[in-house]
Design goal:
6 helices; about 140 residues; elongated; mainly alpha
Length: about 140
C-alpha cells in the first residue's frame, strides 16, 4: 500500500469517525461523554455543552471530507496537522483533571498521533512530487 493510500485511508476514516462521535454527542450525550475519560460527566443544563462538542466534531469531520473530496491534499495535510491538536488537547485535559490515563493515552493520544501522521504524509506528497523532474514533451 502506498503512502498516498495510507494518508487517504487515515483521513477518510478519521473524518467519518469524528462525524460519528459528533452525532453520538447530539443523540446520546451523557452516554457518549462517559467514555471520554473525565472523572465526572456533566448533568442537567450542563449537558448542553456536550451538544456543542457534537456540532464541532461533525464540522471537523466535514472539513476533512470536503478537502479530501475536492482533492486538496496539501490543504488537507495542513488541516490534519492542525486538527491533531484537538485530540492532543483532549488527552492533556483528561490527564490534568485526573481522568483515565488509559483513555487519555490510548484513545486521545493515539488519535492525535494518527491524525498527525496523516497530515505529515499528505504534506510530504507535495514535497516529493515537486522534487521529481517534470516530463517535457519533445
Amino acid at each position: 500500500m502506498t503512502t498516498s493510500r495510507i494518508a487517504t485511508a487515515l483521513s477518510l476514516l478519521g473524518g467519518l469517525f469524528i462525524i460519528y462521535v459528533g452525532i453520538n454527542y447530539l443523540v446520546v450525550p451523557v452516554a457518549t461523554a462517559a467514555g471520554f475519560g473525565l472523572p465526572v460527566v456533566p448533568e442537567g443544563d450542563a449537558v448542553a455543552f456536550l451538544n456543542l462538542k457534537g456540532v464541532r466534531d461533525i464540522v471537523s469531520g466535514l472539513v476533512i471530507l470536503g478537502l479530501l473530496a475536492t482533492k486538496q491534499r496539501f490543504a488537507l495535510g495542513v488541516a490534519m496537522l492542525a486538527t491533531s491538536l484537538t485530540p492532543f488537547g483532549d488527552m492533556t485535559t483528561v490527564l490534568s483533571w485526573h481522568g483515565s490515563t488509559a483513555t487519555a493515552l490510548g484513545v486521545h493520544g493515539f488519535t492525535a498521533v494518527l491524525v498527525a501522521l496523516a497530515g505529515i504524509l499528505l504534506i510530504r506528497e507535495r514535497r516529493v512530487s515537486s522534487t521529481e523532474p517534470a516530463l517535457v514533451a519533445e
